[in-house]
Amino acid sequence: MSLNRTLTDEERLARLDLDQLRQLVGLVEYDDSADPFPVSGWDALVWVAGNALQTAHFLQSALGMELVAYTGPETGNRDHHGYVLRSGAARFVVTGAYSPSSELADHHRRHGDGVRDVALTVPDVDRCVAHARAQGATVLEEPHDLSDEHGTVRLAAIATYGETRHTLVDRSRYTGSYLPGYVARTSSHVKRPGAPRRLFQAVDHVVGNVELGAMDTWVGFYNRVMGFTNMAEFIGDDIATDYSALMSKVVANGNHRVKFPLNEPAVGTKRSQIDEYLEYHGGPGVQHVALATDDIVGAVDAMVAEGVEFLPTPDSYYEDPELRARIGEVRVPVAELQRRGILVDRDEDGYLLQIFTRPTGDRPTVFFELIERHGSLGFGKGNFKALFEAIEREQERRGNS
Ligand SMILES: [Fe+2]
């Protein structure tokens, strides 16, 4: 069986089909029979939060996610709370220390709110771990089973950049709401009248920030250990601004569901935004999570109504005749994009619409992107300069330039 023509359980549950996924996240056909580390897709993004209860509320009210499962002292978990939230095929798990001696409390002190674990669905956990070990990866958790009355999940974990990990999950023999130890729970949060049913359908990509000189090491890690291939490359001048620059390369799994851009700071006359991230996060980590939507205008409006702040885009961006000519015809009138600060990029395959939130925690670290793809499999290369100039203005306001 080849995985490429198969929907994940999460996608099936979300009533997505292959055509929609080709458009939403750039899913491609892929024969994984010779892949030593086949990855089917995202399992979950597992967050650590200083207040998981309130972060779970934010994800429901501001991002329109739905609560589906819970762990905590009432279910026998004396260490932490965990809230599992869904939007389409996307699953977020927000964890926060309950016990002062929880390891999560230390993790949060070091890194603040952020993504600790980019968990991936794999058809064969043991095979992946054997290959990863042979390629020199650090195995954090050996393959093991977790079971309850809903069946058995097989799990393992390997280390990636900073203190980020990839838990590898095979839940094909499990019917429970998330993992043993979690119980099903539904939202008490009620959406506003007229709010979209959901604001995004899937995770598109997760970006990692790493130290100067480490980007190629991690690209090599994903190539060698996980069989990911290089998708696109942005180096130096492409995304340099007058003051600071970064370098970025993108790796993807075989079917392109999982895409990891990796950024490193480049030397500029001012401190790079990546340096600021590394300082406040306490080393490498997840910079942003891009959420695939089929209605970016509706999603932005709903999020703004709930108080989410997006990075502003200068009017000059929309008024630039060169840019107008390059963009060509897009689904949404440019005036509507301008009103919301939504960016447009076009390449030989099509175009995409995208917008970035401000950091969503206390530290100037992790943030969200909304992305609406129309054929383009890019990441907004043409917008990097416009975007980074906007980020740098924010950095200046925080006094970290
Ligand atoms: Fe992105």
What does this protein structure show overall?
- This protein folds into two domains: 33-184, 2,3-Dihydroxybiphenyl 1,2-Dioxygenase, domain 1; 202-397, 2,3-Dihydroxybiphenyl 1,2-Dioxygenase, domain 1 (Roll), CATH 3.10.180.10.
- Helices cover 26% and strands 31% of the residues.
- It has twelve helices and 17 strands.
- It has a nine-stranded mixed β-sheet with strand order 6-7-8-5-1-4-3-2-9. It has an eight-stranded mixed β-sheet with strand order 11-12-13-10-14-17-16-15.
- A hairpin with a 2-residue loop joins strand 6 and strand 7.
- The longest helix has 14 residues, at 384-397.
- It is globular and about 60 Å long.
- The mean pLDDT is 91.
- Residues 205, 207, 288, 290, 369, 379 line the site of fe (ii) ion.
Any descriptors?
single chain, 401 residues, alpha+beta, 2,3-Dihydroxybiphenyl 1,2-Dioxygenase, domain 1, 2 domains, nine-stranded mixed sheet, eight-stranded mixed sheet, 12 helices, 17 strands, 31% strand, binds fe (ii) ion, dioxygenase, endoplasmic reticulum
Would you identify the CATH architecture of the largest domain? Roll
Helix percent band: 25-40%
User: What number is the mean pLDDT?
Assistant: 91
The dominant shape is globular
Rg, alpha carbons: 20 Å
Q: How many domain modules?
A: 2
Strand arrangement, major sheet: 6-7-8-5-1-4-3-2-9
**SS-derived structural category:** alpha+beta
| Low confidence ranges | none
Strand content: 25-35%
Binding site for Fe cation: 205, 288, 369
Cofactor: Fe cation
Subunit structure: Homodimer.
Keywords: Cytoplasm, Dioxygenase, Endoplasmic reticulum, Golgi apparatus, Iron, Membrane, Metal-binding, Oxidoreductase, Pyruvate, Repeat
